[in-house]
Write a structure and sequence with these properties.
This protein has 578 residues and is an alpha/beta fold. It has 21 helices and 16 strands. It has 4 domains: 202 residues, Serine Threonine Protein Phosphatase 5, Tetratricopeptide repeat (Alpha Horseshoe), CATH 1.25.40.340; 108 residues, Alpha-Beta Plaits; 96 residues, Phosphotransferase system, mannose-type IIA component (Rossmann fold), CATH 3.40.50; 103 residues, Hypothetical Protein Tm841, Chain: A,domain 3 (2-Layer Sandwich). The protein has a 6-stranded mixed sheet. Helix 1 packs across helix 10 and helix 20 packs parallel to helix 21.
């Protein structure tokens, strides 16, 4: 029986809840409505809760209010995707209610989760029933009713979870999209797993993280762990081609509570081949740089060095091939692991007193994108900071915030370029002194059109209107593959089949990409587009790209068509019609 939640107990509850959702993230991902490889609700919720667990692991909160405050702050900055943002809002409300409390009884905790639900509903512009919002609301209501007559928090939470599962089962009837797919809401189920993990803490059970497929290839911050990296191969490099001379690797004991993302940004402007993996006790770094001394000095601000290795790659290459490093990141192959765009052809200028003190700009743009070609397009159009991410790799609020702060501007426009990143970007508006404007672009082609519409001579308000109008004129189709067998909207889909989507609508599925391209073209005809652009994905043969373009041109002869190398992962072709 538990009658009071202390700071230490709340800490354990959050850590247990994080382990619970982490163990079930694959199952939650499988509830994704479309069979495309973007079922990342479980991953996003796991990473978001993991941020809270990591922050608490480094602290000793003396009160339940302080523990809830630490959790809410970490979840807000670590929130990924819409599900992660809503989860962070649920805990923000909890923290608001418990703020001044040393301990919380059953009624206090029940009211706290109710305030959390209210916070989430207020933040979502058009709340939809049959989602995590419904499940959390009904579970919270049940908790309050039970707590009015029951002082045992275990009993109260058990009742809330039971009602929550009833609500979860009904989501399939409340949400037409779920009903078509024959699944319950992924976010709602993930939330109940978290509550179950918290309940097990009250019962004295500690959840161990499982080793489900893929689990031990990811670090706590969502980046592939060192062990999963390909080894670097320098056999095709001339010594003069080695841009950064020193391969620097070290492990730091994590004694100071500094945000490791700041270290990532510090390294980002001083080298490449960057990998940073951290846990509760250690930070492990691999970087190629010309300033190993400067980097090591910065590393010492996080804690004492445990190991260190610095090798001169130019000297090594002159005599023999560079020794392969399991941790090395190879630009263009696993860029998504570093949540950054592949480096431009020319190295970034080293910081100097002159550019460090450069005049503040009125306006900068931050964009989320994936693929070397797509990133180059955004740079060419004037984007100042790029966050490598998108489908299957949603950046956190903290990732976006760091790029906003890295701009030298009073006002920053953010292009999320993915519907599942918009909410995370919007959370940044209250976390910085800069004025942040989020243009709700749902695809990279929409973001590109928004950048084309940007007028340097216009006011911020005028540009906001111009860019929003621009994204409204763009229709985006995608050709990708099915991640699993599925029955959807009359289509029988097999894992590995190609599938074509127009916005959120399934156009067709099959084994012939050219036939799917024709199906997309026919679907786009109703918009009478003037411009059609095909962005080709990574490793797509040029002859296939040209044939796709020909099929589109034959069906839409009045449109001006073109093909551009995008290099994006996941989607073989992104087709923009405007």
């Amino acid at each position: 029986m538990t009658r009071q939640i202390t700071g230490a107990l709340f800490k354990s509850m959050v850590i247990n809840g994080a382990a619970a959702i982490d163990n079930h993230k694959g199952e939650i991902n499988e509830l994704n409505v479309f069979p495309v490889p973007d079922g990342d609700t479980g991953t996003n919720m796991s990473l978001t809760m993991g941020a809270g667990a990591a922050a608490l692991a480094d602290s000793s909160p003396g009160t339940v209010g302080r523990a809830a405050e630490i959790t809410a702050g970490a979840l807000l900055r670590g929130a990924r995707g819409n599900s992660g943002v809503i989860l962070s809002l649920l805990f923000r409300g909890i923290a608001r209610h418990l703020k001044e409390m040393d301990t919380a009884d059953a009624l206090d905790f029940s009211h706290a989760i109710t305030i959390g639900v209210e916070s989430a509903y207020k933040a979502v512009m058009k709340p939809t029933e049959g989602t995590i919002l419904t499940v959390s609301r009904l579970a919270a209501n049940a908790a309050v009713l039970e707590a009015e007559n029951e002082s045992d928090i275990e009993t109260v939470l058990e009742n809330a979870i039971s009602v929550g599962y009833e609500a979860l089962g009904n989501t399939i009837n409340q949400n037409p999209v779920l009903k078509k797919a024959g699944v319950v809401d992924a976010g709602g189920k993930g939330y109940l797993y978290i509550l179950e993990g918290m309940l097990k803490t009250l019962k004295g059970e500690i959840i161990s993280r499982s080793t489900e497929p893929g689990a031990d290839t990811m670090s706590a911050d969502g980046r592939p762990a060192f062990e999963s990296r390909d080894k670097a191969d320098f056999t095709d490099f001339d010594t003069k081609d080695i841009q950064f001379a020193y391969c620097t690797e070290f492990i730091v004991s994590r004694k100071n509570q500094k945000d490791v993302n700041h270290l990532r940004d510090f390294l980002d402007i001083r080298g490449d081949s960057i990998v940073v993996v951290d846990d509760d006790e250690l930070i492990k770094v691999h970087v190629h740089s010309n300033e190993p001394g400067v980097i090591i000095t910065e590393a010492l601000t996080y804690g004492p060095l445990i190991t260190i290795k610095v090798e001169n790659m130019r000297e090594q290459h002159s005599g023999k091939l560079v020794e392969s490093h399991a941790e090395t990141y190879r630009p263009g192959q696993t860029a998504e692991a570093d949540n950054k765009a592949p480096p431009a052809t020319e190295p970034e200028a080293e910081p100097t007193e002159e550019n460090a003190a450069r005049p503040e700009k009125e306006l900068s743009v931050v964009a989320v994108c994936a693929g070397e070609g797509m990133c180059n397009v955004f740079r060419d159009l004037g984007v100042d900071q790029i966050i490598f991410g998108g489908q299957t790799m949603n950046p956190s609020t903290e990732d976006i915030l760091l790029k906003i702060e890295a701009t030298n501007a009073k006002t920053v426009i953010v292009l999320p370029n993915n519907k599942n990143i918009i909410m995370a970007a919007q959370q940044c508006t209250r976390l910085t002194d800069k004025k942040v404007i989020v243009i709700p672009s749902k695809s990279m082609p929409q973001g590109i059109s928004a950048m084309i519409a940007l007028d340097a001579a216009a006011t911020i308000e005028e540009n906001t209107e111009l860019m929003c109008d621009a994204i409204g004129r763009v229709h985006t189709a995608q050709i990708t593959f099915a991640a699993r067998d599925s029955e959807y909207d009359g289509h029988s889909i097999k894992a590995g089949d190609y599938i074509a989507l127009l916005e959120d609508t399934l156009v067709d599925t099959g084994s012939d990409t050219l036939a799917l391209a024709e199906a997309v073209a026919l679907a786009l005809l109703k918009y009478s587009p003037e411009f059609v652009t095909v962005f080709t994905g990574a490793d797509i043969d040029e002859s296939i790209s040209n044939e796709v373009l020909k099929r589109l041109t034959d069906i839409m002869p009045n449109a001006e068509t073109s093909v551009v190398y995008g290099g994006q992962p996941v989607y073989y072709f992104l087709i923009s019609a405007e």
